[in-house]
Amino acid sequence: MPRYVAAIDQGTTSTRCILFDHGGPVAAAQKEHGQIYPQPGWIEHDPLEIWYRTQEVVAEAMAKAGAAASDIAAVGIANQRETAVIWDRITGRPLHNAIVWSDTRTAELCDRYAAEAATGGGGGQNRFRPATGLPLATYFSAPKLRWLLDNVPGLADLARSGRAAFGTIDSWLIWNLTGGAKAEGRPQGAHVTDVTNASRTMLMNLRTLDWDDELLAAFDIPRAMLPRIVSSIDANAWGTTMPDGPFAGRVPVCGCLGDQQAAMVGQACFAPGESKNTYGTGCFMLLHTGTTPVVSKSGLLTTVACRVNDEPATYALEGSIAVAGSLVQWLRDALGLIRTSPEVEALAASVPDNGGVYFVPAFSGLFAPHWRSDARGLIAGLTAYAGRGHLARAVLEATAYQTRDVLDAMHKDSGVRVASLRVDGGMAVNDTLMQFQADILNVPVVRPKVTETTALGAAYAAGLAVGFWKDFAALRDAWREDKTWTPRMDDAKRDKLLAGWAKAVERSMGWV
User: pTM, whole model, 2 decimals?
Assistant: First the structure.
């Protein structure tokens, strides 16, 4: 009888594998992968390195648990979204480095698409929002794929013939786990993506849950290179792991969610009005809106939250923030103000407030709710009084302010006032940040006992598909609170801080 469900959590900077039983995590392994910066604003990953790291962490977690393939009920995947990968179906080799979600090389391309639409009365930056729920922005996969087709020699011909395959990281991992390039005695890997990841490409219609012919024509992308869209939780699975793969046996791969939707499942946000915020490399807040997509008029994204087998999909409003935890890394690596990321909390706590200093981390423009690719990062309010502690505090507070901007936009779009915010991710262990977050939102902030909610959501998806967990009610019962921060800031101080933040954001826009 299988004892565990395996979750592969492939993120922007690292890959993890965690084995879960019914009580929680049992064994885990994690490895970082390289960040490639060919030019300013360009960010790439080596898909083969990601696959190698995936194999290594799976093997290490299995060894730590003393587990064999027969002990694993199913495999679930959570992944960094929007990152675009292309590979050769015959050789199995990538045809270019993956273009990462935060890469901005397609800014001019997006501007051109928006200008063409505006000239023809087609909505400018919102040209594709009615079908996709997304504004034209460098964030999403379709402009990245168009750039690859235009700039990789021979790719356009390979794409039209169907030899070149495209996918987000989930597609790349599932393809390799279930067979990869066809060889004697083994099938070719499954070329699939789930609805949550497909909803981030700007090529899927939110209502049909299929690739949209008009969108494919607009971006001139051959359908032959695209994966099949499947449900997030699929009892029929998409294949099994290979005996010569990292699990050393056949295990069904039947759960897949984009990382933020996975965190939503891991936080047991299954009903309309429930929300979570994940503090990772970026920061991503999602509000469950039920089985009807809510069109945002306030700069948010409409996205698929989950789909179970053939049931109707559920949807969410999302506020995507490009820079959160990576700003702490920048403070560490670029400025050298701290030696390790956790040191930022003590440094920020060494001063009573931000000393009037604000940090707008628009390193790749501003995402939700502004969507300004021309914004640039800045530090505002500096005086001779400001020191290292004030800068560290401004770095942490930037994430909380950006979250407040997103929360305000969610209220405008949905009319729902969030009663509390469930939080997870690496920065959620920072008590100073979480208290300030509660203060600036003026709502309680709640951290669960299991903070690895992205991996947990992937495990839940796979486990539900094979009956390891009975239903969503069982998952809700399993969720446990670890700590709650309640607001303790007076209204006048909050209003003053928010006014300073708004002024700094305004000055960051239109910089170039």
Answer: 0.87
